[in-house]
Each structure stands twice: as C-alpha cells, then as structure tokens.
C-alpha cells in the first residue's frame, strides 16, 4: 500500500508574530506535533467522503496577507468584530461597553490571560476526530477572546464576520474562544464570507465553554465563494443546566467541512443543534457532529437537513455517545435529505453508542425527492414549476430557517436560498 | 368551450379511457356518473394535465385551442380547474402563500396587476367564510391535517378564488356530511354563470339534488354509454347501475 501523504511542511510555518508569548509558544508546540501529520484519505473513517475534496496544495500554505483593513464596508447592525484573513481589524469593530463582558483580540491579551488561554485552547475538541483543528492551533495569527462574567447578559447579538480576501492564494485561520460564566447569556453569529477568486483555504476553529446555567446561542453561516475551501470545527463543553443552541447554515463549495462536538458534562445541560445545508453544481458539504452525553439528566435535540442539486454531494455524520453514567439522557436526532437531481448524492450516517440503560434515544434519517403529486397539485392551480419546486424545497427547511433567532441572518439566508432556487430550478 | 373527441388514455400501459366524446358549452353543468374504476378520475386528471396519464389518441379542444399541447400550469391560468378527489397534503407550504402564488400567477398571465399580501388576505378571508372554513386554515400547511370534508371545501374555496372557466369537480361530494354537502354545493352554485361551465364527476347522485345538472352522462369501462338530462340521474338512483348492465365494483346502492 502506498504510504499516506503527509501535510506539507510549508503549512507549518506560521505567519504574523504579533501574539502574546504564551500563545506563540502554544502555536509552535502544535506545529511541531503536526510534523508529518498524515492527510486524511478515503480510508480515514471520518473523512471517507471528503478526503478527495480536500486539496491542501502548497500554494495554499502561505498565510493570506493581512492589510489590517477590511474589504467593502459591512452593513452589520449592532455589535460586530471583523476578521480579515484571520486577523481582527480593530477599527472595523463595534463592541459593547458593558461591565462583565470582555471581548478582546488574542493579540491584545496581557501575558497572564494569554497564558491561561493557552492552557485552555483545544480542550473542547477531540484531536483525533477533528484533526485539522490542530492545524488552526499551529497557524492562528489572531483570535477573538470573549469572557462573560457570572450573570452577564449581552444585550444584542454579536456578529463575527470572517472575511477571506482571496485576491491571492493562501490560507486563513480565524479563531474564537468563548468563556461563558455562570448564568451568563450570549448570542453570537459567525459569518464566513469571501472576496477574490484565487484558491484559498479557511481553517476556522471556535470553542465554547459554558459554566453552570449559561445560555449561548450560536449561529453559523458558511457562505464563502467557489474558490474557497472551508474546514471548520466548533467545540463545546457544558456544565450543569447550561444551554447551547446552535444554528448552522451552510452553502456548498469545492470543500466544506464542519465538525461540531458538544460535551454535556454535568447534569441538566442541554443542547439543540440545527443544521441546514444546500449544495449544487459540483459542490461538497460535510457535517460531522458528535454529542457526548457524559453526565445524567442531559438533553440533546439535533435536526439537520441537506438539500443537494446538480452533481453535488452532501454528507451528514451524526454521532451520539451516551456514557455509562449518563442515565436519564434524552437524545433525539433527525436527519432528512432531499435530492433535487439524479446526479446528486447524499450520505447520511447516524451513529449511536449507548452505554447507559435508562435513556431515551431516537434517531431517524431519510433521503427523498420532491413529491410528484405535490408538484402536480401546485401547478394545477397555475403555479409555475419553478415556483412549485421552490415552495416544496423551502418547505423542507423552512422550520429550521424560521428558528434562527436573528432576523438579519434569516434574511441573508433567504436571499442566498433564493439564489440557489434561481439557479437550480430553470424557469419554465 | 370544451370539446373531447375520441379520447383514449392509459396509465402504466393499461388503457383506461377508450374513446370519450363530450361537448360542453359555456353556462352548462354536466355530470358524469359511473361506478368506481370506470375512469372518472382518469378523465379529470387527463384534462388537468397529469403526466402520469398518457393520452394515446384523440383530441381535446378548449376554447378552440388544443388543450393537450399545453402544460398543466398554462391550462390552469387559462381557466381549467380541477377539484381533486384526493387533495394533496403539503406540510410546510402555507395555504395562504400557495393560494396567493396561484392567484397572482393567473393574474399575471391575464395581464392583470398582482395582489399584494394585504389585498389577498382580505379576499381569502371572505372566500373562506363562504365555504365555512375558519380563516385560520389559511395559515396552516396546504391541506395539512384537514379532515376529508375540510379538504373538499378547500378545493371549492380555491375554485372561488381562481374563478375558472371550466371547473371539474371530482367526487367533491364524497366524505361530506349533509351540512358540509350543502356548504360545498352552495359554493359550486355560486360558481354557476353564463360564461362558466361545470363538469361534476360523481359516483352517487346525491350531489345532483343540490346542483342540478343540464346534462348527465354515464361512464362505464372507459366509454360514455348513455347521455341524457337530469332525469337520467334520477333513473340511475332508482334502478342502480345494474339497470344499464354495468357491474358496480362497490356493490353499494347508487342513492346517497
Ligand atoms: N395512477 C394510477 N396508477 C395505476 N392505475 C390507475 C391509476 N389511476 C387509475 N388507475 C386505474 O384506472 C382505472 C380507473 O380509475 P379511476 O379513473 O380512478 O376511476 P374512478 O375515478 O372512476 O373510480 C382503475 O382500474 C384504476 O385502478
Ligand atoms: Mg375517482
């Protein structure tokens, strides 16, 4: 057997050095550990369907230049932080001025806080299941650190706009760390967008730790261009009675991957994970989620929908692991898939591992097409085929779109979906 | 208005319609009666343009134009309406959104201005009352969780909204209790006008007590074997399909 190819050493040379020393040290250490990291292949179980889409060619190794400025002015309402090629642009940010809420670029952290952070980074993610997240740790040039003191409540959503400017080829490594104190509350929106048309790689990692009773709503919109590969990971650890509410919306690209790992570590913690993915043309999107029910009396509710058109390919792999002590766990997972063409492909795999005996665990996965009778019913009333297809496809995901708790994200999502419908369903 | 000549149609390779001839003029109400399996729904679906049914020969003219050449949506916009025997449930698409899209598609086709959400809401509320449906139904998914009777009244409501030239009603009476039958028939009677034709398809004659047809046809084995005035329906009620030598799969009395 041919030896697996390894990550080019070019990828292990970080760019910008303007980070506090403890973070530079962490980065160097992660880089050393990644030397000769085998790249995922078809035989790598959790990369079975995606390895051939991941193209880590040398031209992507260098860090995308950061001009310190962002692209066209962003009309973002409310609080926002802008990453430009993985580095925060302070002048483009608008931050809350609320006591108990710390929002700072990694680059501006003092050494003691940076040292504390260095200890905690990567702790929410399983290194084996999210291998490429470690590449982010070896490469990040900046990051956003958010800490909410106990009982602090951010009064509006915080948008984190991660802009990739691919006017030349290279890679960017945006990083986020959220430390939500006891009974604090936060709604955070991560938006990944791009400009330029050169090949680029975005490797984004976000980590959340929720202390007792904390409530975090995370909205993630992945909408970069056709020249951008995106490999992202989100890690979450939850203490007692905390709530993590996740809404991921993904539009396909040459390579899209999101690993979402949630650990319910203390009794009463609960999470809801919603996901919507649409792909068309030759696009690819792969969602891998893991929910670890570590403690008893935790609930998880997961609902993912994939829609694939053209020759595109969507993957959902949802693992629920109920540990031996996690009695009275409640876990629900639903994954429904819609194929809009005969050339499209969807692979779905629920994985349940249950070691406790007193649990409620339900899962279901379906793959289907638009119902011909329904289309006929609609067009028999004069509705165009285009509109009938659009109505039925929208019906498949509408509930999840409506559950996104931030209006402007619902709007952006709808606009992008309309573009998807326009190009997928020809006008009769 | 509608002229069907020697129409043959099959489904999954099996011939169901074996030479239908029928002339319908504006203002007329026709009833097609026949036992289960005689091809009544097949005829209705063929006229509406369901591609699951293949027309193998014959011709259908609608206002002088070849109907069979047109797409389903085009037929609808030009005035064909089919009230389904089994209306389809479409969860996730709201009735209101669906109906407004349909009404506006037709208005656009006729060069009329589209209705905005508020205008349409007003109209839809009025019409829903006319068929005794709570306007809350408008917010629900299309036919989602509707009872049999509610589905049928929703079909009539759609006809009232779309104001077709030819309304084909496929077993609109089945599954309705006496009161609902009255409401549905009132809706249909409200559609009657000098420039509109109605084709009622039914197994039983009880609907015909409420909506009096000008012409009655008996369909059996894919052919119209007898035509007459409304007295033909009454005669059928009295004597059953056996009178015409037809076997009724249902064995049920014709009277409803
Ligand atoms: N979609 C279909 N697929 C297969 N057979 C069908 C289909 N629709 C109708 N048929 C057959 O065609 C015949 C006529 O059916 P139909 O037109 O529904 O009769 P009616 O409405 O008079 O009861 C029946 O034998 C029925 O089984
Ligand atoms: Mg029938």
TrEMBL record, chain A:
The SUF system FeS cluster assembly SufBD core domain, residue ranges: 170-396
A biological process from GO: iron-sulfur cluster assembly
Any Pfam family the entry gives: SUFBD_core
InterPro entries in UniProt: Fe-S_cluster_assembly_SufBD, SUF_FeS_clus_asmbl_SufBD_core, SUF_FeS_clus_asmbl_SufBD_sf, SUF_FeS_clus_asmbl_SufD
SUPFAM superfamilies xrefs: Stabilizer of iron transporter SufD
PANTHER family in UniProt: PROTEIN ABCI7, CHLOROPLASTIC (PTHR43575:SF1)
NCBIfam families: sufD
Protein name per UniProt: Fe-S cluster assembly protein SufD
Organism: Marinobacter mobilis
TrEMBL record, chain B:
Record GO terms (molecular function): ATP binding; ATP hydrolysis activity
Gene3D superfamilies: P-loop containing nucleotide triphosphate hydrolases (3.40.50.300)
CDD domains: ABC_FeS_Assembly
Domain ABC transporter: 2-246
PROSITE patterns per UniProt: ABC_TRANSPORTER_2
Cited InterPro entries: AAA+_ATPase, ABC_transporter-like_ATP-bd, FeS-cluster_ATPase_SufC, P-loop_NTPase
Pfam families: ABC_tran
Swiss-Prot/TrEMBL keywords: ATP-binding, Nucleotide-binding
Annotated SMART domains: AAA (SM00382)
Family the entry assigns: Belongs to the ABC transporter superfamily. Ycf16 family.
Matches recorded under NCBIfam families: sufC
Protein's name according to its UniProt entry: Fe-S cluster assembly ATP-binding protein
Organism: Marinobacter mobilis
């Amino acid at each position: 057997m041919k030896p697996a190819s390894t990550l080019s050493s070019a990828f292990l040379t970080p760019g910008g050095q303007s980070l506090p020393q403890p973070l530079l040290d962490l980065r160097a250490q992660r880089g050393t550990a990644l030397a000769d990291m085998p790249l995922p292949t078809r035989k790598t179980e959790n990369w079975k369907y995606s390895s051939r889409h991941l193209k880590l060619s040398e031209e992507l190794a260098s860090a995308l230049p950061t001009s310190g400025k962002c692209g066209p002015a962003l009309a973002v309402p409310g609080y926002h932080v802008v990453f430009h090629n993985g580095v925060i642009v302070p002048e483009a940010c608008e931050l809350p001025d609320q006591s108990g809420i710390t929002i700072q670029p990694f680059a501006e952290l003092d050494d003691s806080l940076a040292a504390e952070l260095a200890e905690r980074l990567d702790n929410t993610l399983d290194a084996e299941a999210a291998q490429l997240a470690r590449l982010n740790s070896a490469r990040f040039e900046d990051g956003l650190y958010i800490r909410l003191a106990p009982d602090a409540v951010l009064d509006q959503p915080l948008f984190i706009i991660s802009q990739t400017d691919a006017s030349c080829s290279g890679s960017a490594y945006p990083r986020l760390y959220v430390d939500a104190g006891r009974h604090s509350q936060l709604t955070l929106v991560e938006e990944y967008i791009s400009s330029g048309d050169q090949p680029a790689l975005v490797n984004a990692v976000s980590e959340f730790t929720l202390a007792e009773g904390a409530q975090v709503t995370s909205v993630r919109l992945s909408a970069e261009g056709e020249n951008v590969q995106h490999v992202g990971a989100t890690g979450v650890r939850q203490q007692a009675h905390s709530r993590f509410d996740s809404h991921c919306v993904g539009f396909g690209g040459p390579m899209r991957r999101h690993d979402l790992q949630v650990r319910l570590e203390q009794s009463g913690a609960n999470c809801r994970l919603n996901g919507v993915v649409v792909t068309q043309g030759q696009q690819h999107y792969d969602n891998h989620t893991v929910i670890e029910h570590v403690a008893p009396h935790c609930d998880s509710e997961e609902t993912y929908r994939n829609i694939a058109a053209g020759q595109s390919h969507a993957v959902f792999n949802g693992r629920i692991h109920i540990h031996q002590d996690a009695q009275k766990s409640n876990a629900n997972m639903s994954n429904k898939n819609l194929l809009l063409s005969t050339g499209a492909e969807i692979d779905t795999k629920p994985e349940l591992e249950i070691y406790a005996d007193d649990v409620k665990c339900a899962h279901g996965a379906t793959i289907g097409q638009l119902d011909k009778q329904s289309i006929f019913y609609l067009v028999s009333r004069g509705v165009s085929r285009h509109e009938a297809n659009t109505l039925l496809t929208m019906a498949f995901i509408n509930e999840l779109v409506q559950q996104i708790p931030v209006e402007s994200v619902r709007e952006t999502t709808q606009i992008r979906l309309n573009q998807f419908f326009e190009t997928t369903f020809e006008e009769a | 208005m509608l002229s069907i000549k020697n129409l043959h149609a099959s489904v999954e390779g099996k011939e169901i319609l074996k030479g239908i001839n029928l002339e319908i003029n504006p203002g007329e109400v026709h009833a097609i009666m026949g036992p289960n399996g005689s091809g009544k729904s097949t005829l209705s679906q063929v006229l509406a343009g369901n591609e699951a049914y293949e027309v193998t020969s014959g011709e259908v003219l609608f206002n002088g134009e070849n109907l069979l050449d047109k797409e389903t949506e085009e037929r609808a916009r030009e005035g064909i309406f089919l009230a389904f025997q089994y209306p389809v449930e479409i969860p996730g698409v709201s009735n209101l959104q669906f109906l407004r899209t349909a009404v506006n598609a037709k208005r656009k086709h006729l060069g009329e201005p589209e209705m905005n959400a508020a205008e349409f809401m007003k109209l839809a509320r009025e019409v829903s009352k006319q068929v005794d449906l709570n306007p809350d139904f408008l917010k629900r998914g299309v036919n989602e969780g509707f009872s049999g009777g509610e589905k049928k009244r929703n079909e009539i409501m759609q006809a009232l909204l779309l104001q077709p030239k030819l309304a084909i009603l496929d077993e609109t009476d089945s599954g309705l209790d006496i009161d609902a039958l009255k409401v549905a028939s009132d809706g249909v009677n409200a559609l009657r006008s000098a420039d509109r034709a109605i084709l009622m398809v039914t197994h039983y004659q009880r609907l015909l007590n409420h909506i009096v047809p000008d012409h009655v046809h008996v369909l059996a084995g894919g052919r119209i074997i007898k035509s007459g005035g409304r007295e033909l329906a009454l005669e059928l009620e009295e004597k059953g399909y056996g009178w015409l030598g037809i076997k009724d799969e249902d064995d049920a009395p014709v009277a409803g």
